[in-house]
């Protein structure tokens, strides 16, 4: 296994430990570390030594959360996929519905729990946390887009700081 493959597997393991299904994590890492513009299910099968069914399911999951999309490859009769250029911001923006749902569930739970109970305190914290995220996430995403110089961002001037820019001359 080459150095790049080892790092890709390390990422997949970390994503798996964070709760992502193992094959979905491995396929995502393969897309991230691939030098190709697009990959087919067959490419992934060969690279990951995995079954067609597990690759297909993983691609489906990654498409559902907008990390991967179909890619047109003229002359090819196979379905090609690529990691979206804006995958991370799309993923986070898509979390808004989940954040709202979690807040609503916490608030619904609060209506049925004794205000003096430990559960009430936990649900109050949960509702406040998700309410906070709903307010802050859009502003965070705006700052991210601005730091990238994305068209239509609020401030086209900010530059994303990197480790190299923080080192003294």
Folded structure, characterized:
The chain is mostly helical and 169 residues long. The chain has 2 domains: 3-84, Winged helix-like DNA-binding domain superfamily/Winged helix DNA-binding domain (Arc Repressor Mutant, subunit A, Orthogonal Bundle), CATH 1.10.10.10; 90-147. Helix content is 60%, strand content 6%. The protein has 7 helices and 3 strands. The protein has helices spanning 3-17, 22-33, 41-48, 52-64, 87-94, 96-110, 118-147; strands spanning 39-40, 68-71, 80-83. It has a 3-stranded antiparallel beta sheet with strand order 1-3-2. A hairpin with an 8-residue loop joins strand 2 and strand 3 (80-83). Helix 1 runs antiparallel to helix 2 (22-33), helix 2 packs across helix 4 (52-64) and helix 6 runs antiparallel to helix 7 (118-147). It starts with a helix and ends in a 22-residue tail after the last helix. Residues 155-169 have low confidence and may be disordered.
Please describe the structure with a list of short key phrases separated by commas or semicolons.
three-stranded antiparallel sheet, mainly alpha, Arc Repressor Mutant, subunit A, 169 residues, disordered C terminus
Short description:
This protein has 169 residues and is mainly alpha-helical.
Per-chain topology:
Layout: H1 3-17, H2 22-33, E1 39-40, H3 41-48, H4 52-64, E2 68-71, E3 80-83, H5 87-94, H6 96-110, H7 118-147
Helix pairs in contact: 1-2, 2-4, 3-4, 6-7
């Amino acid at each position: 296994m080459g150095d790049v493959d080892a790092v890709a597997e390390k990422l997949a393991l970390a994503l798996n430990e964070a709760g992502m299904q193992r094959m979905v994590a491995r396929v995502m890492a393969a897309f991230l570390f691939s030098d190709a513009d697009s990959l087919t299910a067959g490419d992934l099968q060969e690279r990951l030594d995995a079954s067609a069914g597990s690759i297909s399911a993983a691609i489906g999951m990654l498409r559902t959360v907008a990390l991967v999309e179909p890619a047109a490859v003229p002359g090819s009769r196979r379905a090609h996929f690529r990691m979206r250029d804006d995958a991370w911001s799309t993923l986070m923006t898509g979390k808004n519905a989940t954040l709202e749902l979690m807040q609503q569930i916490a608030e619904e739970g609060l209506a049925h729990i004794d205000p003096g109970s430990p559960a009430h305190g936990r649900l109050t914290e949960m509702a406040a946390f998700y309410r906070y995220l709903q307010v802050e996430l859009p502003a965070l995403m705006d700052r991210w887009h601005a730091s990238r110089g994305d068209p239509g961002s609020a401030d086209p001037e900010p530059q994303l700081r990197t480790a190299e820019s923080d080192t003294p001359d």
